[in-house]
Amino acid sequence: MKLNTHNYKEILTALSLPEFWEDQLSMNDVNTNSIALRMLHGIKENITGGVISRRIQTDNKDIRKFAKSMYLEIDSTDAFKFLEDDFDRDFNALDELRIHSALKKRHHQKPLPPIIQWVNMAQKIEFKIFLIKEIGLFQQMDSAPQLLELYLQKVDYSIKAQIVDTLGMLGYEKAVPIFIESFNQNPQEVKDKIIDAFGKLGGEQALRFLENVYYQTYNKETLVKILRNIRSIDHDGRVYAKLENSVSTEFEKIAISYIEQDTAEIYEQ
Amino acid sequence: MENIAYSYQYLIYFYATMISVVYVTLAILGYINITRSKIKYTRREEDKLKNNPEIAPGISVIAPAFNEEVIIIDNVNSLLSLDYPNFEVIIVNDGSKDKTLELLINNFELREIQFPYIEKVRSKPVKRVFKSNLFKYKRLIVVDKVNGGTKADAMNAGLNVAKYNYFINTDVDCILARDTLTKIILPVLDSKIPVIAVGATMRMVNGCEVNEGKITSVTPPRSYFPLFQETEYLRSYLVAKLGWSFINCIPNVSGGFGLFHTPTVIKARGFDPRSHAEDMDMTLRMIANERENEREYRIVQIPDSLCWTEGPPNLKILARQRKRWGRGLLQIFVVHRKFLFNPKYGRTGWIVMPYALIFELLAPIIEFTGFLFLVYLMLTNQVNFSTFWLMLLFVYLIGVTISLITISYDLSVKKVYRSYTDYLWLIFFSSLEALFYHPLIVIFSLKGYLEFLFLKEFKWGKMTRQGYSKSTPTEIIGTTSQKA
Asked: Taxonomically, which superkingdom (chain A) (predicted)?
């Protein structure tokens, strides 16, 4: 059922609902504030960042963070200001979801500014990782060279892992030789991401590298991962067939067959 | 003798007072938790998860099945209809001797696939893995394994196949609410400290209308035992577990339904097939593993009713269920005795395990000996009846009050029954619980303890399914069995 937006707006104005909930937001009660914020979020019309900003310094972390994500969604002057400041000291995965959703809405109206600027300002590892992930999700290709530069610096391994993942999402092929060179200096977390990224980046160099890694790998989960990525970039099937002919264990035989079925999965409707 | 009788009466007095104080405290903490949860998690958060599949964490739903031909198809359909963007359903056929596997193959057009099975946790050998030819069942994986005799063994096989970082441990007789996965994952996302498990409220499916694996109407059970058990479950989830959750002290995420962090369970070596209470055993081993490695963790309980299960329809099955729980509880204190009063295990060692020992494990023993003692006092004419009736009424009213609080909490979370008359029906039965239902629970628990102490081998309690679907037998392909 489609909402009659004209009548809806008229009712909001006639009953002064935005004003009512704005008043509720200034009350000194956590429950009332929380309900008011949600109501204002639902109303959206004529709500400015200024109204919400009353609650962005509050002690209650749930209200504070909700207000900040709402500010990001509706403010028309300085919407991104909290991204400059690690968003919040209690930043968690639910905030990631809220920020991502707000950024998505903004992106539908107008392309987002480069997220990389906030990556450089971020102090908290979790927030940095989140922003790097967003660069990939919003396909901000221009940021790829800077991300690769960041990868080469001494940063936390989980940041490196996310950079690899994002560059894979962006399809930044220039990263391939650098990833190959640094592969053995990284922990398994980053190695796994490199293997997955190569499955997206493709190219002869990546394919040859994956083949070599396959022969050196004993971890069964990694073996399956390598096979899956080889399969997705080995367009003429040459390397995959070579591996198929050289399998040494029953597990590898099964894994090869599984990947074949899985990647060629064609369902009946 | 007089001194013993005198001391014993004082012991009982303090015991009853303590249990009342604990329950009132848990009720207050539970209420705070319900209020918080209602404010924090709304449809908006759930919609955000559903509308942003690219960042919604994946969840594997694992349900073992052993001789479940009556309900298997409805249940799998129900699981496949969950409203969440990233999930898979893993049904583990634990060597069923009936038509469970055949029905699955025929109804979901399954084909055997080569699967690179990696044994991360131990289970009996997996024979085959199946996937469907049909797109609409692409989330379904069926694992056929050698019977291991326990749910724990089948869960481990499911875990070895699961691909996501979180999994739901459920039973094949359980029906999950459509929004289960969005609701259960929100507390995981909303925490800086890693959440290793989440529990939710379970209730009885007996009495509900179920159509093709979906609950179309919720009413309280019509038969006595599930009706008593409904209040008992609500009390356990909405008062006890929500209360414990407030101070991160949940000792047990129910085996019927719970979300777990897959790597944490694997690090703790998976479910133990030798355990009679594999759910509590798993939770405690996860806690032990996290604390011994000095990692922070949280175990959360949410108030929402997300899982409906079939309650014991008759005395025989109730006895079987409760004896197993009794054996399991006693076994927990034998296996995990290291927790008791051990500062290394924090609040679990100092608060919740001593509580479970004194007020759960010892309760049936104290209640039974209390009854015998009362008979002795009566026979020797030592009972002051004017005080006796007053005390009895006091204790009874405390029990009824806690049940009333529970039911009001349930209503405050969400009105799940169609009418308020259904709630009155529940209140009426909860007022009879102490007279007719609780004495049976005490007897069965004691029998369970004795079985654990004196019997060497146990037969695993098998729930006799009645089934609950309205689907006609002709809608199920390939069965000759009659559906109830």
From this structure: Bacteria
